[in-house]
Amino acid sequence: MKIRLALLLCLSLHLVPSQAQEAIRVGVELQPYQPYSEVENGEYRGYARELLDAFAAEQGYRFVYTPLPVRRLLGDFLGGRVDLKFPDHPQWNADQKAGHPVRYSQPAAPYVDGVLVKPQYLGQGKARIRLLGTQNGFTPWPYLEDIRAQRIKLIQANQIESLLLMAASDRVDAVYLNPRVVTHQLRQMRLAPDALVFDPQLAHVEDHYYLSSIHHPELIEAFDRFLERRAELVAAIRLRHGL
């Protein structure tokens, strides 16, 4: 009887997926960026957390989230100190990623990055923008030519809250950020929801965030299958977070 129990125990251990045996380190951004993500009391939260948790639960993975400043996150990712990175994009830090076989997932979260101005400046075009604020780590792609030609001066800050206050007090002419994130932040700051508004007539970027890995392409393949197979669940998570 004891031999039979030992054999059953051994077999059951072999049936446990190997990925459940060790933690998978997921590198994420420390900066608050709701509704996509934030870190509160050391806990990673938001749309990204719910999406990745749903994937991990279905596949039997054990994810450990490691929130890091944007630049350190890139270094830890390229150095192999985290297994997965979210968010990521093929265009981001392409020169630093050169030589690393980065594998990107299918689109995991839609986003828009663009220019937000005070309501009275809406529709007045690019010509009035001399000082453009954005967050450290952000690249205002549609305005790089103007910045390099010194037609626009780029002002960067670590905190979105600081940028919004600068725009509200006319210390910058506009900010280049994600409108959904700005809306959330204005609410948190108890400012009017239309204190800054997205100007769709100005150049902006509509794209997606991706999950990436260097050393574990099999995880990206599994995530892609999850996105396709559980499309309804993914859509419900997006709706829940206003995406």
UniProtKB/TrEMBL annotation:
Gene3D superfamilies: Periplasmic binding protein-like II. SUPFAM superfamilies: Periplasmic binding protein-like II. Keywords: Signal. Residues 1-20 form the signal peptide. The keyword Signal applies. Belongs to the bacterial solute-binding protein 3 family. This is Transporter substrate-binding domain-containing protein. It comes from Ectopseudomonas hydrolytica. The lineage of its organism: Bacteria, Pseudomonadati, Pseudomonadota, Gammaproteobacteria, Pseudomonadales.
